[in-house]
Design brief:
This protein is α+β, with helices and mostly antiparallel strands. The protein has one domain: Sufe protein. Chain: A (Alpha-Beta Complex). Strands 1, 2, 3 and 4 form a 4-stranded antiparallel beta sheet that branches. A hairpin with a 2-residue loop joins strand 3 and strand 4. The chain is rod-shaped and about 85 Å long.
Length: about 160
């Protein structure tokens, strides 16, 4: 009889705890910092916040001139709206090659989005500088972020003439 009462009390207690737990109230309590999205050859950390209209720069930020081929050009890609939020990249082109990539916007609506971005974006940046094009593999588990990254990257490369 003692075992049955003990089992019953444990079951009821577990049920009460499970039903009484409000996951939405505790979802924002874990603090996850923005991913350290650093471009190659750069030392800038970016934030994932920005307005949905493109954070003030939806087109290009060309510093390109008609001078020497060793000119450094910075081009901002289009803001790509994904299912989980906007993605926007900025490409630094030096002597006709991709010298670096900065992620200006990425999905950051909740801690899971930030976790995915923290994992996927450095991989995508590394792949971009290695491939010297937007022809990079998607990161497993970050399909929407990867697709948004590639689309924004391609728009920046098109604007840079690469």
């Amino acid at each position: 009889m003692k075992r049955i009462s003990y089992w019953f009390l444990c079951s009821v207690s577990a049920f009460v705890l499970l039903v009484g737990f409000d996951a939405s109230r505790h979802a924002g309590t874990s603090v996850v910092s923005a991913p350290p999205v650093v471009s190659s050859g750069q030392s800038t950390t970016t934030s994932g916040t920005g307005n949905a209209a493109g954070g003030g720069s939806g087109g290009t930020n060309n510093n390109k001139g008609t001078g020497a081929s060793s000119k450094t050009t910075t081009v901002t890609g289009d803001v790509v709206q994904t299912q989980w939020g906007p993605v926007q990249v900025q490409v630094v082109v030096r002597s006709g090659t991709i010298a670096g990539v900065k992620v200006l916007q990425y999905p950051s609506g909740n801690s899971r989005d930030v976790e995915i971005a923290t994992y996927a974006l450095p991989i995508l940046i590394k792949e971009t500088t290695a491939a010297q094009s937007a022809q990079v593999d998607m990161v497993s588990g970050a399909t929407f972020t990867s697709e948004g990254y590639v689309q924004s990257l391609q728009s920046a490369l098109d604007q840079a003439g690469l």
